[in-house]
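The following block was generated as part of the benchmark described in Methods. Ligand: iron/sulfur cluster.
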Amino acid sequence: MNILNKIKKANLVGRGGGCFPVAIKWEMVKKAVGDKKYVICNASEGEPGVKKDGYILENFGEKVIDGMKIAIDFLSDNSTTPSPSLPKEGISGYIFINHEYYKKLGRKLNKIIADDKKYNIELFIKPDGSGYIGGEETSILNAVEGKRVEPRLRPPFPTTNGLWSCPTLINNVETFYNVSLVADNEYKENRFYTISGDCLSAGVYELSDNWTIEKILRETNNYPEFGFFVQVGGDASGEILNSKQLDKLAGGAGSITIFNAKKHRSEELFKKWIGFFINESCGQCTPCREGVFRLEKIINSNNIDWKLIEELLNNLDEVSFCGLGSVVSIPIRSYRKNVMGL
Ligand code: SF4
């Protein structure tokens, strides 16, 4: 069975948070016409509370790079594709890596890459100060091209118009790791979860992707004996769930952060979330640039106007240019609904 069929059979989805089917993305890049194609491994991991890609790179760097090589081989294989889609100038790969991971793992990853001269893969360090938005797919393209790090208008999508307008396959670290497992018939339908916060055994765990949040917390000895709630999918953009809502899968980037219900302060949480989005907004579009500042002002006032906050959140949801603006509402609304009962 060829790799594409294996990926389809395994139902692999992207593990950067979007859960887009891997096989569909690979086919799109394969079919796209271009003299050159690129494969990018997104190792930017910029959301607080999510550490699994760093863990995977540290412990399974060879498998991640192997997954990239499998992608390059797939895009170079002319036995299954009409020749116009084969890039005359070949396929290059980048690992787009954040500075912290580069400092810790750059030497090791460069050595793994250098051990196999057949492939043209190199590390690209995420520019300083580009934060969370620097990990967004089209921001990565701008960063590698040396442009201002901000999202691009979509469509066109990177699969057809990526780096220097060439078809570009962008997958996350965990996704390439899974591809390598699938190729070696070792994939066990697991995924990585980062567990943190008010818990006994914080860390990164590789567990079944079918386990509920409750089962994950119990099996890892992290189910609290005190009243609690969790944030799932990232400490900034993740949804807040109370302890009676844990009979569901941990979506997004697979993180679960536990909060002691008695010890937290809601104003601090609102300020933390909004402060994160203020720092990370690239300022390209008005709803986000102005909206998050307005939110901060309202939250800091003595009398919080929740009607006005709702209007601003609706605006962010509907007209933000990229995903950062449209996730601002998720923690705020879900906290109010699931923890405050409003
Ligand atoms: S939503 Fe925010 S981060 Fe996204 S493009 Fe607009 S200003 Fe930049």
